[in-house]
Amino acid sequence: MTGAPARLLARLVALTMLLTACAPAIGFVETATDRPIATLSARPAAGAVTPAPHWTPAPTPTPVPTPPAVPQAFALNLYQEGDFVPQYTFDWCVAASIQIAHNLIDDTGGGTWADRAQQGDLWERARARSSNSFNGANPLGWAEVLTDVGMGPYVVVSIADYEDALQTAARAITETGRPVGLVMWSGRHAWVMSGFESLGDPGQFPEFSVTGVRVLDPLYPHGSGQWGPSPAPNSLLSPEQLATQFVVREPRRWSSDLPAGYLLVLPQAAA
């Protein structure tokens, strides 16, 4: 080569080598490194609306209704051994029933009322408060003496329906903790209802039903030839058994404004 072409060729070779050194290598194999490899997400175009994330609320659970309470067998009895007192004459059933009521109510150990002289005095007091053509003690005098001696208040009620009468008596015992007087034999005799059994607690179920009645007949063990034997003290009678002696009292039996019905000497809640 001549001098000028040779110099031109040398420059071209040098320029080629310089460009090769500055260009990135193609097919480079990346070796493992501890640094993470960052990736770029595509950005939305200008003016584009980013959709809100979709959220589905959890369904509201359907409330499970509470099943209604089912009436259960229930029993209440005020009687304790020694509460019973017999009537000392065939006339003193009201007075003996007052003594029995005291014993059922008094759980303080204040003494049992059972004295014959006391029974006679209670009968005289009940008779003095009675309006009775038979010159005896009637339910009005019975209720007044119970109230006077501190066991009241008591009132006399007449209930036309038998089942209603039993429910009324059971409810009164539950609410007051005191016994109920039952006017037996169409107004001729006195018993004390000391407790009962029922389907349903009267304090929870207005429509409870009485299945048994606890009674004390002060005439026990004599009974009546017309009305039947006296049940033993604290006997549990079915409503059907009680109905043979607990019957409707007619108004003509003694002076009263009460209509015909089943008579109860009923404890009232204290005012």
UniProtKB/TrEMBL annotation:
In terms of PROSITE patterns, this protein maps to: PROKAR_LIPOPROTEIN
Q: Which UniProt keywords apply?
A: Signal
| Signal peptide location | 1-25
By what name is this protein known?
Peptidase C39-like domain-containing protein
Q: Which organism is it from?
A: Pseudarthrobacter humi
